[in-house]
Design goal:
This protein has about 100 residues and is mainly α. Helices cover about 55% and strands about 5% of the residues. Helix 1 runs antiparallel to helix 4.
Length: about 100
């Protein structure tokens, strides 16, 4: 179960990676007309040119928010929380078992 969640989280992180700074984008997440993402930190430096497809568009300047990517980010945060909780429970369970055998 943990391996599945870790793979899922890794996949989500890859899909939300900013092509400029290579970090996982967090809201607000912007997009070009072809729906390539850009994080809010890098967007002001790019003007109107997409770093992925080099498309120039005034809409990119207008900071078109990519709601679908933001929903993916929320889902990513939920799964990160779940896996952290599972790992904590597993650690506590292991500590209890070790204390019982002593």
């Amino acid at each position: 179960m943990i391996e599945f969640l870790e793979n899922y989280i890794s996949s989500k992180e890859s899909s939300l990676e900013c092509p400029v700074c290579f970090t996982v984008s967090s809201p607000p997440i912007y997009k070009c007309p072809r729906e390539h993402i850009i994080c809010s930190s890098c967007q002001p430096r790019l003007g109107n040119k997409c770093p992925t497809c080099r498309t120039r568009s005034g809409r990119f300047i207008g900071k078109q928010v990519y709601r679908q990517a933001e929903e993916s980010w929320k889902e990513l945060e939920l799964f990160r929380s779940k896996i952290s909780s599972i790992k904590t429970q597993n650690t506590i369970g292991l500590m209890i078992r070790v204390n019982r055998t002593e």
